[in-house]
Amino acid sequence: MVCGYASLDLVWRAGGRPAPDRTVLLEGQVVPEPTFGGCAPNVALQLAARGCSVGLVSWLGDDEAGRRYLARLAAAGVDLAGVVVGRGRPSPRTLLIYDPDGGCTCCFHPSGAREQGLPEAARRRIATARAVAVTVGPCAVTKEVLATIPPRAMLAWNVKADPDAFPRDLRVRLLATADLVCLSRGELPFLAEVLVGSGGDPVRRLAETFGTTIAVTAAAEPVRVAWPGGQAQVPVWDVTAADPTGAGDAFFAGCLAACLVGADPVAAAREGAATALRFLEARG
């Protein structure tokens, strides 16, 4: 089961880094075609493509774009019993602006998703799930999910630096419970805020303090992986993509799928990198 926001994404590239009180020019299409996005559906689609039996806990509107998204997910074999459709509401939208340095400014409108609860059908599926993946989503739903996960299930967390979705107490709870935590280097300070004291390597400290596996991506630089008692670097491919949105979600899905068949942290990170590469190659 994969839990979190769904979104229709609008992606631009900027000629400079966006900043307050500064104008930058956008490049590419004046009105880009919305693409299906949101971490949770991205991850669910990647897992379904690998033959996993996967369900989604999310929220979409009943606009045309939302209906097309639901059809896409259903065609991929994703169980939609946990997806709430907001009648008379538009689907969530995300505005993404990539700067020349590879950074991304992300603005998200959740529409009615912040009001979502955990559907009973989703609760039943989570209670029998082999693994649960938490992505950025409504804080209240994430807490309900954590209260429903059976003790034997694997928990994986795909981090986003969103204090509304992940207040400090929930970050601590997720770190203490998760078997796998994936994030980007830019999100590391957000996660490291939960550590007591300063100094030392935050990736190693997070792994040792909470007893979990931490995988940190950094664009074309090697993936850093740390776990209690060990750490490693996993090389990746240096590629240029017209739209890299979702590559981190593909990495997370690849890692999780590998862990489900018993891969060690290094092998899981390698599979995550390979999955992200295939995703970007398919994008162009």
Question: How would you describe this structure to a colleague?
Answer:
The chain is of the alpha/beta class and 284 residues long. The chain has one domain: UDP-N-acetylmuramoyl-L-alanine:D-glutamate ligase, CATH 3.40.1190.20. It is 35% helix and 26% strand. It has nine helices and 14 strands. The chain has helices at residues 39-49, 64-75, 120-127, 139-148, 168-177, 188-192, 202-210, 247-260, 265-283, and strands at 2-3, 7-14, 26-27, 35-37, 55-61, 79-86, 93-98, 104-109, 131-134, 154-158, 180-184, 213-218, 221-227, 230-234. The chain has a nine-stranded mixed sheet with strand order 6-5-1-9-10-11-12-13-14, with helices on both faces. Strands 2, 3, 4, 7 and 8 form a five-stranded mixed sheet that branches. β12 (213-218) and β13 form a beta hairpin. α1 crosses α8 (247-260). The longest helix is centred in the last third of the chain and has 19 residues, at 265-283. It starts with a strand and ends with a helix. The model has no long low-confidence stretch (mean pLDDT 95).
